[in-house]
Design a protein that fits this description.
The complex is a heterotrimer of chains A (301), B (306) and C (247). Chain A has 301 residues and is mostly helical. Chain A is 70% helix and 2% strand. The termini of chain A are far apart. Chain B has 306 residues and is mostly helical. Chain B has one domain: ABC transporter involved in vitamin B12 uptake, BtuC. Chain B is built from twelve helices and four strands, in the order H-H-H-H-E-E-E-H-H-H-H-E-H-H-H-H. The chains are: A mainly alpha (301), B mainly alpha (306), C alpha/beta (247). Chains in contact: A-B, B-C.
Chain lengths: 301, 306, 247
Amino acid sequence: MSDFQIGLLSNIGMISFVALSAYLLLISGAISFGQQAYFGLGAYAAGVATTLWDWPLAVALGFGALLGGLGGGLIGLLTRKLNGLYFAIATLAFAEFTRVALELWRYQRTIDGELVGPDGANGFNGIRRAFEDGWHPLSFMILIWLLLGATLLALTLFDRSRAGAALRGAGEDPVLATLLGTDVMRLRVAVASAAGAIAGLGGGLYAHLNTYIEPSLFDVMLGVHALAYGLIGGLGTALGPLIGVLVDIGILESSRLFQGWRMVVFGGLVALLLIWRPRGLLDEATVRRLRTLVLPATRHA
Amino acid sequence: MVVEVLQTLIDGLSAGAAYALLGLGFTLMFGVMRRLNLSYGASLMVGGYLGALLAARMGNALPVGVLALLAAIVTVAGATLAGLYVERLCFAPLRRRSAVAAMVSSFAVWMQLEALASLLLPLHTNPYPTPLDLAPIDVAGLTVRPEHVLTLVVAAVVALLLHRMLARSRFGLALRTLSDSEPAAEAVGIDARRMTLLAFLLASALGGIGAWLVLAADQQVTPMFGMWSTLKGLIAMMLGGLGSIPGAIVGGLLLGLIEASGQALWGPQVRELIAYGLLFLVLVVRPGGLYGRTEVALDLAARERL
Amino acid sequence: MLELQHVTVRHGGTIAVHEVSFAVAAGELVALVGPNGAGKSSLARAIAGTHRPVQGAIRFAGTDITRLDPPAITARGLTHLPEGRPIAPTLSVRDNLLSGAHVLGSMAEAQVRLAQVLPSFPPLANRLDQPAATLSGGERQWLVVARTLMARPVLLLIDEPTVGLGPRAARETLAVIADLRTAGTAILLIEQNAALVLGVADRAMVMNGGRIVAAGTPRSLVDDPRLMAAYLGAAPHASRPLQEKRP
């Protein structure tokens, strides 16, 4: 496997975390333009943990996920009463606030004669723990995909569970869901936490693979892209966002086909796709149909 | 001390006047379809780039005043055409369908327009023609830039004309009715689809004028302009109250003042911090904004299934 | 004026209106009564253009309006007053009224029309500058009726005008509506409360289960057992199809 391919697959894997984060909120009926904030918080948290506090990599990654989860939960709590559009804008405001705050934040220490740590807009360099521990690009890529796989599995199991059905129900019709006994607000806050944690985990991985992060990476673009991936690939299954990422990064970024026209083509395709399939390629209806094809037992009389 | 405050006031109000125009555009669009047009800023950027392209190709052949005027026309026209494109592709086909899809579609087109602009003018910074290359005037210790005066005057005139149109014309009434209650508009025979298209054109033109004012003052246009103007317009609209026309104006001016104060006191980054922090606070505490509706009406309006 | 021929409308998965045919002449007040779920509202929506019939034709003032959109139909003089009584809550009463004249094409015309309509609605005249949301239920009703008049309707399609009104307000509303006939306006009145409307209607039709099961003058219908049956639950297919009552 070439370096390029490894890098590409790693990228696809890591961005999928943010995409899954946005997807989880989408199926609960909430549009978030701000999941990139938790990606960023996770990245910085994990980076600081290994570089400045000398924590083991695994713990640091967990810490990144934790911080992402806490952030997501907090914002989810503060915005729990907001609906639709207001929630979306609030998430955007928070994410931008976080990004600008990171541009102002300096936390540096001298370690081994070198000044390391987040340096505001200049970024955070030297997050080398993964490579110091002996990880290679290939093995790290495998790690990313193992963790991603675990996350996908967890999400898929959740989707099949009662809680998952309740969540989708709350997303479609919150009033009905409440009547049926779902505590929609509490569910939303819990989901916001989980989504934040997923993004945070991805962020930690990102920081350690690239060894350098800066606030401008975690901007609105990333957030809206994350949202778009779910809508392209389809909201019917956790694989949907992954497909969206594959289409964008995998096909278009890697093929030097379109050069400067890549975005023009991609943007137009997405717009057209959404007219045809507003809930994505693998939308709920399609997934149900596929399921009855694959598992005849689920076909209704 | 007083001089500094007044200076901040002037700087803030003139920036705010441009923001108000941006916010007005956003609000008009939101009012008729209850959705955010994420490529609003990008449409304005297209207009700006066309103006810069004009300057690049014909800048030497034309006198300054003529060039500036042509650039203004091209910018507003370009923004309007881009707005037409967005409405037809992203919003008209998804009218009674998924609002998320429409907004993400508009985001995709934002990417498209940004890429197109970069193909037109590959440099990051592109000079934009200005009508007034005059030095700032000193008035009793205050620095008054001609661009600021121009912005304030133009914005005020535009706002007044808009107000008159909305309050007195048949089209204005139809627009206000549709923004207030789509069922009521339907009941009286207002064609919501046609109205949405016209509102888009008007909003894009307004935004185009706001963009022209900003670009003429900055004397340059960059690819970041799309994101920048979208966010400014969005914040102005939210501060004043989603969907409220006077709110957008107040919100824009307020944003300008807050930014100017923040900048004066703590520097440019804190300025941004305050803007976003304030927006978040407003949403959490009083989602209706300053002029917004009461909680109940708000809930109904925002509860639409996305 | 208005002519329906074999109009069939689907609602969800079922057929809500089955091959309905009738006509309304200028200056006539025709009542369409029937119990809940009879298909009256679906029929109204088909006429107003919000819902396309799967079969049949609707002609209005000589034009085929079956496939037209609501704005086009309203522009031709067919005004629909839907059940929701939608108003623009933050706009003033005056603006709400003026918006009713949208189809007249100019603000000047609208102002003229407002001056013509207002005298019949004194409670509104006193509240012109208030936001419409501040009106009471009854006043809101008047607002909606007045607004409908602003369009100089040729045919008024009114869906459940007396819902939520007390008996006196209901009678007053119906009286105002009935008066419109003198101007030549045709009225198709859809109403669950058969007793109320039979008093003002020139003709009436009883709908049940998507079909017209009885029709005639109010006097002839009052004694018609099919009217009672429709409301008290005899299965629709049990009623025999429409038969003219011999005088």
